[in-house]
Amino acid sequence: MAHEDSLAFLQRVPLLASLSEEQLHTLAASTVRRNFSKGKTIVAEGDPSQAMFILLSGRAKVQRSDTEGKEVILAVIGPGEFFGEMSLVDDEPRSASVITLESCDFLAISKEPFTEMMVRSTDVCLAVMRGLVGRLREADRKIETLALLDVYGRVARVLLDFSEEIDGEKIVRTKLPRQEIAKMIGASREMVSRVMKGLEIDGYIVPLDKGRLALRDKIRGYLH
Ligand code: CMP
Predict the structure, then answer these.
(1) How far is the CA of 82 from the centre of ligand 1 (A)?
(2) Confidence at residue 29, expressed as pLDDT on a 0 to 100 scale
(3) What is the mean pLDDT of residues 23-41?
(4) pLDDT, tens digit, for every residue of 165-182?
(5) What pLDDT was estimated at residue 27?
């Protein structure tokens, strides 16, 4: 990608908002823009790390798996969010895999310019810390969900997390395959299918066109 294009992208990334134009120019020179189609691994759990990434468009899942290949989805990342910074900070292997859920455009910043950027700018350090703290809060919430809610509550929590307020209604617009929900809440796909059917029959969720779902307010009752 041309240097000017990289620069234009970098200027729009919240993480880098505090950098001067000169710093952004330097960074743009060492930044690579990539596109991966759906289902591709950007970062593999256990690998050594050379770069961190900023997602420009598309969604990707952060996933861990055990030796038997069982998988758990820790998070879904969207545009403007960064990933791959943990192993650059602590020099440990990659903590998880990051796999595209749809076509994704992203920027790769290699280790040296990333470290330099952190050293030079307190604002960038703070932005990275804010991102990490946000994830810790989210992880705390997930632990609570897994420890305290039954499977109906866990499914309800995922649906609410992925919903948006549209014309006063809570709508899940993104297609959420049962298998992916199952990997987020530590349940089987069959169990998730049963729960979704139950929620539909009892009027907690209403299927709309194009795989979208409307959530009724009473679904919150499952969170207590
Ligand atoms: P790293 O360990 O370098 O590679 C995997 C990346 O996944 C990690 O950096 C983080 O950027 C990201 N990651 C790991 N755990 C979580 C989580 N719980 N929520 C969101 N992102 C995560």
Answers:
(1) 9
(2) 84
(3) 90
(4) 999 999 999 889 999 999
(5) 82
Alpha helices in the chain (DSSP H): 3-11, 21-29, 86-90, 111-120, 122-148, 151-161, 178-185, 189-201
Cα distance between residue 173 and residue 23, in whole Å: 38
**Phi/psi at 141 (nearest 5 deg)?**
-65, -40
Residues with CB under 6 A from ligand 1: 43, 49, 62, 74-75, 83-87, 94-96, 98, 135, 139
Mean pLDDT of 104-127: 90
Residue to mutate (ligand 1; options 62, 74, 81, 141; most atoms within 8 A of CB): 62
**Which of helix, strand or coil describes residue 167?**
coil
pTM of the predicted model over 0.70:
yes
CA-proximal residue: ligand 1, atom 22 (nearest):
62
Phi first, then psi: what are they for 49, rounded to 5°?
-115, 145
